[in-house]
Amino acid sequence: MKLKFSLLGLIFLLLTFMACPGMAAPPPAGKFFLVGLGPAGPEHTTLKALETIKKADLVLCHPELAVPFQTYLQGKEVFDPWKELWVNPEKKNLKPEERRELLAEKEKQRDEFIKQMKVRLSQGQNIALLTGGDPTVYSRTFWLMKGLDDDAVEIIPGLGAITASMAALKRASTGAKARFVLQTAARSFLGKTDPDDLARNLSKYNGTLVFYMGLKEIDNLLNTLKKYNPGDLPVAIVYYAGYPDKEKVVKGTLDTILAKITPEQEKWWGMIVVGRCLAGPGFEMNE
Ligand SMILES: C[S@@+](CC[C@H](N)C(=O)[O-])C[C@H]1O[C@@H](n2cnc3c(N)ncnc32)[C@H](O)[C@@H]1O
């Protein structure tokens, strides 16, 4: 008798689930993809990155970055998260207290945004946050994603500006027996307390220095390097690495490069490479 009742109960439950799909198990959670697009449009984007965009329910992307990817974004829900959330406090000339407040306010807004993203993920949606180059190098996307569990995130690697730049230079960053390749930003290299420390200490070694975001501070950077390195140390600048119509390479030395780039207007899209690797050889048989 008892068994009969339990069986009837089970059948009843099953029928209820079938009749009310709202009561069925929730969909599997979606993923938050951080997608590296490479340095210069779809030609340099991996197939995996393009596939990820295709399967995304929501694409988060700065409008400028979206321009060369229009074909892949058609029919997609695309949203620019930076417009509301991002601010550069350096540009605002703020007092320390005002700066702290502004940053705290932005973090609050970001946390709210991430809450909304989590709701979408729990509904089974896939979200793709697009970024240029290699997403793990100098990318503000990591600020945006704060609060998401690692388990919810997948990073799709992208070709970095460093790789496209070395290709444009036709040199190996590890060439000429370089003992290291240093990726840095001008501002990080010229530390706050002792701006010369890295230049002074690293000049003891044969290495390759690669600078992101360095064009605005190039005078300062070169003057610091010149104090500790010979003037004939090779330097190259690659503007718009990877862009078929805009890429430009300027080569010189610590002594000559500044004069050579005087006519250049571009102050953002350029990589500065310093080191003997620029003169080669790229690799030797006995290495
Ligand atoms: C915020 S960082 C982003 C770097 C990016 N995640 C990467 O891996 O290439 C921006 C800086 O990267 C460099 N950069 C990015 N794309 C570039 C390109 N196509 N050509 C030259 N420099 C580039 C510039 O130095 C620029 O100021």
Task: Give a description of the structure.
Helix content is 37%, strand content 16%. It contains twelve helices and ten strands. The chain is an alpha/beta fold. It folds into two domains: 134 residues, Cobalt-precorrin-4 Transmethylase, domain 1; 117 residues, Tetrapyrrole methylase, C-terminal domain (Methyltransferase, Cobalt-precorrin-4 Transmethylase, Domain 2). Bound molecules: S-adenosylmethionine. S-adenosylmethionine binds next to helix 8 and strand 10. The site of S-adenosylmethionine has 21 residues, from helix 8 and strand 10. Keywords: Methyltransferase, S-adenosyl-L-methionine, Signal, Transferase. One of its GO terms (molecular function) is methyltransferase activity.
Bound molecules: S-adenosylmethionine
CATH topology of the largest domain: Cobalt-precorrin-4 Transmethylase, domain 1
Largest sheet: 5 strands, parallel
Report the total helices: 12
Number of strands: 10
Global morphology: globular
